[in-house]
Amino acid sequence: MKPFLLILIFFFSGLSSFAQFNQKLVEEKLKLPQKTSIDETILQIGQTFLGLPYEGGTLEGPEEKLICKLDAFDCYTFVENVLAISLAKHSEKPTFENYMKILQNLRYRNSKIDGYGSRIHYFTDWAKTAEKNNILKDLSPILGMKMDKTINFMSQHRNLYPSFATDDKVLFDIVLMEKNLAKKALYHIKKEDFNTYEPAIKNGDIVAFTSTVAGLDVNHEGFAIRKNGKLYLMHASIEKKKVIISEETLQQYLMRIKKHAGVIVLRVN
Q: So which domain of life are we looking at (predicted)?
């Protein structure tokens, strides 16, 4: 057999093995003892990933497709995958196929994969879409105050995004996405007010840290977890290079990072 054909066979068999690994992993988690509430399940599933490495850019590639990668995460993909597995576990069809369907619903606008622009890139847009689909409830308008900020970081820094650094058609899609997001009111709990509203945050709530960076909505996100009455963060940490439950409290983390302006709090329905 020709060497080139051997390389192709090895490449595709590797992809198949990776897909099988992901499916087996999800199915194992779906078979874990059933919890009574979705917030308990989120913490249960999230903790099974503790110690796995942090890796950015895992959704980027030469073509836009639904990527399932469960051996490494950034903060966004950790939250998204834990949520998708948890929702599948509490659904009428706790299957890998349903997990993949939920993942696509969360990640793509109208659940349709049609190029880079069809993926929901801004976390606030992701949250609004999930709330519209009755998956999440944004508590920030109740607890916090309106954000007076234009979200346009991607279009203003296209050089950071290979998918549209030189592609004006994709840039147009990104600008349109930003204009549509500008029509939606965004709220957060300001850093200086966090102590007042911290008791309202429950186990399994998604906590996103709003940004002081011009044009950017959110810096980071994870799940709230209470231990001994104190609130901590379960997240894929770029500082620790792995999935962790923070040693410092959530409030200490919020206050320590200067580019964090406040938090958005989302509760799973």
A: Bacteria
